[in-house]
Please model this.
Amino acid sequence: MAGIYYHIPFCRQKCYYCNFYVLASNKYKDVYADALLREMELRKNYIENQRVDTLYFGGGTPSSLPVKDIVKILNKTHKLFDVNPEAEITLEANPEDLTPEYLQELKKYTPVNRFSIGIQSFFDDDLEYLHRNHDGAKARLVLENAKKAGFNNLNMDLIYGIPTLTTEKWNKNLEIFFSYDIPHLSSYALTVEPKTTLEVLINQEKRENTDDGQQAQHFEILLEKTGNKGYVHYEISNFAKPGHYSKHNSIYWMGGHYLGLGPSAHSFNGTSRQWNVHNMKQYIESDAVDKIVLEKEILTPEQRYNEYVMTSLRTNWGCDIEHIRNGLGQKYVDHFLKQVQKPIENEMVVQKGSTFLITHKGKFFSDGIASDLFIVT
Ligand code: SF4
Model:
């Protein structure tokens, strides 16, 4: 199973918490699709002849691209790759772009069959704290528009642990989410990333800081409410009705192969990981792979072990020591079994056959638990 990711780095404004490579300008938008096509041609052999099961437009704001460009990108993809006719094709979208006209055009001219909508909150003061470009009314309207246009395979993003988001409001956000009968939810704690505007504003005491206690409480509510409504908590930040797991993200979590196109995109083909340049001008002007790909890394067995432990423990499939034994050898299994004893004693991890899973108690601490199991290189 392999996937292709297209990074669409345009946003109307930069959200204060964002640390992705994005441009709050349309300067290169007209020539961007052609640059992606060029890169696709240059790097088409990276995932060799594998069948492509997922296509994912992420960002940035992919819904800021005109439909004709999305059509162009998809046509070229189908020409160059063996794309599964049943492929999951996701487009990330921001509420301000999903007008009825845009949705109808997408429906008519593209095979996009899944939307991921960055709602984050239905309350204006939270959206203002985050410096999002939409308000709560727009967030609701866009969900109605998407459903009217016949898009039911939707994901909504919601952020919890925003200092302005009281417990009552968090409960309300979840209630509104449930009322739209959307099959997938991605929900993340607000993280203050280094060098973001949010970090600067917090340091200047112009924005309140996040609070671990509040975030843990919101996370508990999230687990309880989604569980009661029949959503499976299949990855630490992802919840889905049965049959609606994100196939594309599952490729990342299960160690599958993917080609990432566009500035700052990264790719993985089992042996090498590659990162593209973080510079739009350079990207647009590049006419050779070694000008596009900034860094290439052949993963060591220790890195492969650490990555597998980190990603697998975040999922409800868990970390399977048979997978480690077959892919890396007994030495790595021995290390894992030695290190995992403490989290088991602390009831943070449980063993089921050859698989180790994070318990309910451990879920909020999954990244820390995984890093205690790493091999330090
Ligand atoms: S819309 Fe998304 S990608 Fe764009 S600035 Fe906001 S968080 Fe970043």
